[in-house]
Amino acid sequence: MDPVAAKMIGAGIACIGMGGAGIGVGHIFGNFLSGALRNPSAAAAQFTNALIGAALAERERTVVCFTGDGSIMMNIQELVTAAEENVNIKIVLMDNATLGLVHQQQTLFYGERLFASQFRSSPDFVKIAQGFGIAAVDLDASANPCATLMEAISRPGPCLIHASIDAEQKVYPMVPPGAANRDMIGA
Prior knowledge:
This protein is of the alpha/beta class. It has eight helices and six strands; from the N terminus they run H-E-H-E-H-E-H-H-E-H-H-E-H-E. The protein has helices at about 5-10, 20-30, 45-55, 70-75, 80-85, 100-110, 125-130, 145-155, and strands spanning about 15, 35-40, 65-70, 90-95, 135-140, 160-165. It has a six-stranded parallel β-sheet, sandwiched between helices. Helix 2 (about 20-30) links the parallel strand 1 and strand 2 (about 35-40). The longest helix is centred in the first third of the chain and has 14 residues, at about 45-55. The chain is globular and about 45 Å long. It starts with a helix and ends in a 23-residue tail after the last strand.
C-alpha cells in the first residue's frame, strides 16, 4: 500500500472488526492507526456500534472501519443507519469469501476439514451498499487502487471500499485451540 494512503487512513479514527480483520489490520497498519478501537474477540455487532458512535461523536473526522466479509454480514443492516445519519465512515471490506479465522483454524488444526467456513456464493457488497444509499468502490475493478482508495476516503459521507483478499493468507500470531497463550504460534 502506498504510504500516503496509509497515512491518510491513520489521520482519523479506526474501528476494526472481529476475526482476522481485527488481527491482521492491527499488524499491518499498527504504525498508522492513531486512535484504534480493536477487540477481535468482541461480539460482531459491537464494532458497528462503535464505528457509528465514533462517527456521530466526531463528525469532523473520518472514521475508518476495517472488516471482513463474514463479519459485515452479521450486521450489514447498520449500513442503513450510516446512510440515514450521513456519517463520515469508510468501511474497508476485506473479502476472502470465508469466515477467515474459522477457515484458518480448520485448515491448520483440523486436517483441512472445512465445514461452514467457506461461502458457496458471495454477495455483491458494492451493490448492497449502494442499495442502502452508500457510495461504494471496488478496488479489484480499479485501474489505480491506491488512487481509488484515497478518493473514497477523501469524499464526505459513508463509503464502502471493497477489496478481495486471499483466503489462504493466514493471520498470525494466534493461539491454537485448547492451548495456553504461551503456546502462541507465528509470533
